Amino acid sequence: MMSQTAPFQLTYPRPGNACLMHGMAERLGADVERAAASGDISLQELSDMVSRCGDCTQHDACIIWLLDHQGPQVLPPEYCLNTQELHYVRAVQGQISAN
User: Fold this and answer.
1) Checking CA distances to 83, which of 9, 22, 51, 77 falls within 20 to 30 Å?
2) Where is the DUF6455 domain (predicted)?
């Protein structure tokens, strides 16, 4: 007889979500791993960014955007749910490298 327990819930983000978020960060010149390591953002904020990417309904459009926009970019696509956070990281890192 099978148990009545709930199925196992995966608590880690899917790798594809992290790849899309990191790809967008790279295009915008925002090193989110360095930002988390230095304390510019918390590890929870980094995790939230990956989760936000996972909640997005525009994965296919994002993949196409990343393929079509190789190299440094000024703005993410309008549907990016991490726009504010990516701009923050880029601004903080820009101030650090400018000093």
Assistant:
1) 9
2) 17-91
